[in-house]
Design brief:
Elements lengths: L1 H20 L1 H35 L5 E5 L5 H13 L3 E7 L1 H12 L2 H5 L9 E6 L4 H12 L4 E6 L2 H42 L1 H9 L4 H45 L10 H26 L7
Antiparallel strand pairs: 1-3, 1-4, 2-3
Helix pairs in contact: 1-9, 2-7, 2-9, 7-9, 7-10, 9-10
Length: 302
């Protein structure tokens, strides 16, 4: 066990020394890998932030039930009682047409225009809080209430959020496809880097085999090199995304003050960050293994 640990530490030290002997090439390779990983991961972060906003806005969906203009207080009372007795309804709030007109005047700043109207064009309405926020249950309740007498229209206020969520699912699929392509690029970069190292150290490898070195002993430093290079690329991608989010959040601070709300983009959590680093290190190791497995077998002592 001590000998095995010593070989592992020696291979790791040799790999780190090799990084130090070619700092420019190392930085360029790490930069290429970091940028390649930052693109799909950055899109993932953007979609994750947007999904959080959608969930916040759509967390409490509502149904707006608009009555006919000729509906009287008795009609409104019957519909209110029917809504309160409905098993799928959690809460009901009645909005008289006069109150709706006052809210319209206060919220739009068009008091003069509203006052010039010959009559109140707004109908009485109910704001309904459903018990079940599932899309199927909401649509079923909407269709049922739409058929009641004196009900002209039922609007599902969270419908746009569900459509946006469906669009986000397609976008996430596109992110995974893009991540797959860039993962292949990372493997290709590592493959070519290790291939060049094997060709450069061909004579050293031949001598090592002559004195009895096994393939696993020769392969180990190259695998460490690929894994560490991939890990460094993952750290670079994490740093690129973090710096980009800081710049964007600095710009969003002014927008937050204008809209009197908190708008802030969140970085990757620790689980996603660890997955990014493990994924990049694993891809680097895999690319190195492919390269060594293909080229090491062709080198035999003469």
């Amino acid at each position: 066990m001590k000998a095995w640990l010593w070989h592992q530490l020696d291979s790791l030290a040799t790999t780190l020394a090799r990084f130090g002997r070619a700092p420019i090439v190392t930085l360029l390779n790490v930069g290429v890998i970091g940028i390649a990983l930052a693109l799909p991961v950055g899109l993932y972060v953007a979609l994750d932030n947007l999904r959080g906003v959608v969930r916040t806005l759509a967390s409490d969906p509502q149904l707006s039930v608009f009555l006919a203009l000729n509906a009287g207080p008795a009609d409104a009372g019957k519909i209110e009682a029917r809504l309160k007795q409905h098993a799928a309804v959690r809460d009901v709030r009645y909005v008289p047409r006069d109150q709706a007109l006052k809210e319209l005047k206060a919220s739009t700043g068009l008091a003069d225009v509203v006052d010039s109207l010959p009559s109140n064009p707004l109908p009485d309405a109910f704001v309904v809080q459903p018990r079940d926020a599932a899309p199927e249950a909401l649509e079923r309740l909407r269709d049922e209430v739409s058929g009641w007498p004196k009900v002209t229209h039922v609007q599902l206020d969270a419908a746009w959020a569900r459509r946006l969520e469906a669009g986000l699912k397609v976008a996430r699929l596109a992110v995974w496809l893009l991540a797959t392509l860039f993962a292949f690029a990372l493997v290709a970069v590592t493959f070519n880097t290790i291939r060049l190292q094997i060709l450069t150290r061909r004579e050293e490898i031949e001598v090592s085999k002559l004195i009895g070195a096994t393939d696993s002993f020769i392969r180990r430093p190259f695998l460490y090199f690929g894994a560490l290079q991939g890990l460094a690329g993952g750290i670079a991608a994490w740093a690129i995304i973090g710096a980009s989010l800081q710049l964007l959040n600095h710009g969003l601070a002014d927008l937050s003050r204008l809209y009197a709300t908190q708008i802030e983009l969140r970085h990757l959590g620790w689980e996603d960050s660890a997955s990014l680093l493990l994924f990049s290190a694993g891809l680097g190791w895999f690319g190195a293994w492919l390269s060594v497995d293909q080229h090491l077998a062709r080198i035999e002592p003469r």
